Amino acid sequence: MGGLGAGSYNAPNRALPGEVAFSQRTGGGNVTQYVDDMANGRWDWSRSGPINVMRQGDRYVTFDNRRLMAAREAKLSEIPINVVDSNAIRPGTKMTWEEAFRRRFNDPRNKRAGGVVPDSGLLELPAIAPTKQ
Description:
Number of helices: 5
Shape: globular
InterPro entries: ParB/Sulfiredoxin_sf (IPR036086)
CATH architecture: Alpha-Beta Complex
């Protein structure tokens, strides 16, 4: 496959999907549609925007787990990233990105699926969670 697919996002920051860690142990069921769209060149990065990541030690950890999962499964060679300032307020909230990541790492779904996610994130693919009926 390779590349970013259709509608490549014109952002200066790029990363290899396999080198970005996850902030969750499970991901949403609609990831399969994302994979199909990315693998077949229908994913529009200019519409979705880059994947938000925060630097944690020597790696990036994403807040956008489904798109990262899909990019890996679609075997994209690179993805656009937005490196967030951990002290900045996450848009649409009153918490910093650092606080948002902490909340995500400690989410009860992560605890049920194997435990709190470490600060460095997880490199293995999250399990796909069943969709709610």
